[in-house]
Amino acid sequence: MSYASQMLGLGYHMFTSAATGIAVAIAFIRGLTGRPLGNFYVDLIRIIMRILLPISIVGAIVLIAAGVPETLAGTVVVPTLENPSISQAIAIGPVAHFEIIKELGENGGGFFAINSAHPFENPNPLVNLIQLVAILSVPTSLIYTYGVFANNLKQAWLVYSIPFAILVVFIIITAIGEYNGNPAINALLGSQQPNLEGKEVRFGWAQSALYAVFTTATMCGAVNSLHDSFMPNGGFVTLSNMFFQIVFGGQGTGTAYLFAYLILAVFVTGLMVGRTPEFLGRKIEKREVVLASFLILLVHPIAILIPAGITLAFPDQLAGISNPGFHGFSQVIYEYASAAANNGSGFEGLGDSQPSPSAIATGTAPTATALWWNLSTCFSLLAGRYIPIVGLLFLADSISRKQPVPLTVGTLRTDTGLFTGVTAGVILILGALTFFPVLALGPIGEAFQIAKGIG
């Protein structure tokens, strides 16, 4: 297969993958507002032709102007600076067009191995900012889209405030950890220095921390620094983002998950205050609660915790952990969380890679860890991505078939600040109850270990 054919096929998948998630969100919003779910193929084509493709064309031109290369020429062979008699091959290609759909569609896979840390993919702070805007643009706009469909922009902005507030808090937590740096290193230096391990100097600790929060909050998976090198604060936040999946979540599915939480909050609040559990004039009953609970409380944790438990039960045979202790635990959990949340970024440091070309040439079998990681994360990826999509559509279809009921004094209103606060509490409580133990055994334990080692 030619290089051009490979790039064409990869670009096709990057558009269709993103459009599929957005189509799920649109169908889910239609269902919530009492409309038929629509036709998937019609939505898919419209999303690609009217949203993703036009923005990608304009965005790629902007990236080219900002310094990202764009060419169909082959690899450039030039002499090295250290020894002119030795040649090096520099890979180039249509990077700008690849880069924009990588971020806009939350695909995350880099044109080069080191992703957005590579100077051709992300040469300067301006390009870094453009990428961050592209990453957040679709997930954030879909909440506003809901407001338009429901003819209730007030509720849309209230719902928007939940993931936005969590995002701001997570940025602050991550930034504090990276700014304060590693206490052990600071003790050796005799002064406070930010944590620059695993980071590009052209971005520093601040832009690296911001990028890490954005890319895990939206399930994009692109990286401009090594998440494995972040302080425990950053590990806590990146893992929490992939556990919650609503800040602002995956392409389309994050919005649907957010409203699934909203449905649970309606039911719980209605039980507590004796009000009729209704959402947009439609009763929330057993079927809707079961489906929402199944999506939020069962599928995602099962896709992460069960394979992680098996892996950690046989650390020498299956895990391939390079950092024993709390950090090694985080590496394993991160790998499965990334797969289940369709993120793709990694803590690295695990024996999870395929055999090298030399091993293939000599007939050397892959290591047990590489085989296990590839098979087990496939389970997490398929279960975490496709089962929720089906469940979300069943949930939306169930609500769309309900007859609207008139508002009464006993109806629980969902477009108030009080209910928005309750929903945020439900999200945090459910997330904490499900995943707090693994956070305690991972980044939280590591933070205490570092602090104790210094004290």
Major sheet size, sense and barrel closure: 2 strands, antiparallel
The outline comes out as globular
Overall helicity: 55-70%
If helices are DSSP runs of H or I spanning 4 or more residues, what is the number of helices? Answer: 15
Global mean pLDDT: 86
Beta-strand content estimate:
under 5%
The helix/strand series, from N terminus to C terminus, equals HHEEHHHHHHHEEHHHHHH
Major sheet: order of its strands?
Answer: 1-2
* Alpha carbon gyration radius: 23 Å
What is the structural class? mainly alpha
Please tell me about this protein's structure.
This protein is 66% helix and 3% strand. It has 455 residues and is an all-alpha fold. The chain has one domain. The strands form 2 sheets. It has a two-stranded antiparallel ribbon. Helix 1 packs parallel to helix 3 (95-104) and helix 4 packs parallel to helix 7. The longest helix is centred in the last third of the chain and has 38 residues, at 417-454. The chain is globular.
